[in-house]
Automatic annotation (TrEMBL):
<protein>
    <submittedName>
        <fullName>ABC transporter ATP-binding protein</fullName>
    </submittedName>
</protein>
<keyword id="KW-0547">Nucleotide-binding</keyword>
<dbReference type="InterPro" id="IPR003593">
    <property type="entry name" value="AAA+_ATPase"/>
</dbReference>
<feature type="domain" description="ABC transporter">
    <location>
        <begin position="17"/>
        <end position="244"/>
    </location>
</feature>
<dbReference type="InterPro" id="IPR003439">
    <property type="entry name" value="ABC_transporter-like_ATP-bd"/>
</dbReference>
<comment type="similarity">
    <text>Belongs to the ABC transporter superfamily.</text>
</comment>
<dbReference type="Pfam" id="PF00005">
    <property type="entry name" value="ABC_tran"/>
</dbReference>
<dbReference type="GO" id="GO:0005524">
    <property type="term" value="F:ATP binding"/>
</dbReference>
<keyword id="KW-0067">ATP-binding</keyword>
<dbReference type="InterPro" id="IPR017871">
    <property type="entry name" value="ABC_transporter-like_CS"/>
</dbReference>
<dbReference type="InterPro" id="IPR027417">
    <property type="entry name" value="P-loop_NTPase"/>
</dbReference>
Amino acid sequence: MTGAIATRAAEVPDIVIDVQGLTKSFGGRPVVKNLSMQVHRGLIYGFLGPNGSGKTTTLRMLCGLLTPGSGHGTCLGYDILTQSAEIKRHVGYMTQRFSLYADLSVRENLEFVARVYNLDDPHAAADSAIRRLGLENRASQLAGELSGGWKQRLALGACILPGPELLLLDEPTAGVDPKARRDFWDEIHTLAHQGMTVLVSTHYMDEAERCHEIAYIAYGELLAQGTVDEVIAHAHLATYIVTGPDLAELAERLKAMDGVDMVAPFGTALHVSGRDRARLDAATKDLREQGPQVWSPGEATLEDVFIDLMSRTKDNFA
Ligand SMILES: Nc1ncnc2c1ncn2[C@@H]1O[C@H](COP(=O)(O)OP(=O)(O)OP(=O)(O)O)[C@@H](O)[C@H]1O
């Protein structure tokens, strides 16, 4: 199967997704607005944003599973408006809900998927997936009895069984423990290394940081995209890390100040950011000089940037 993925990938265009001006409304309410993006082959591309911001809708439009209201583009070289059947043949889609048969074993599920896709040797295909995902000890266990992490691994195994060229993973690790999440992401990286392109939505910052590129979507708008470093640099957030006593009270005071755009607790510290360094410095001058807290210049994190982006869109909505 590994060979199959590598061979197919060689035929895939270098730009796997190339879309312009996609929009989608439900019941007259715009859910995705004028979205344009390109994704290169072999990249892990992460979609982040608040709940209900349009990530799933975007993922589904990008690969022809949902027709946009307007806009156009290609996925795997096929037209998303007219060739969705061809696209679907080459896309593996893992939804938020576990969609395999709970009362079939791991092996039976995989063989079933192999038969649905008319693979030559369903038994061998299931074997290969079981080995690849380290499911040997669980092959005869009922899928419904697996832990959350192993269920996700099985779902991934079923997704890649037919040798897709593009994987869509919609919050694949929600509710999965950190070790299982890490293993899952190691596997995604191995697949990408072999030429598979992966679009993945997530709410986890550590997962965002494991993506080659990310897109941040809020209220239907694509607010930032690029590598993690590019997204952070582009936000131009000046940041202080504040430690010491009474941080909760300090946070409330800071939130009300002009020039302070983002205040968020991180463990035992407070991150305080502003889009304009001079205004942030002026606003916080007295507090920084008087204490009792200690203020140190810091680097904005991806999470700081996302919190700031989210609050900006909320401001615009108000
Ligand atoms: N088929 C549909 N019919 C009507 N409304 C829909 C439909 N699909 C999605 N929506 C609405 O569109 C908005 C965006 O939903 P979407 O699932 O794309 O967001 P999301 O960013 O993936 O959210 P989450 O992080 O919660 O999964 C939501 O308000 C949702 O209720």
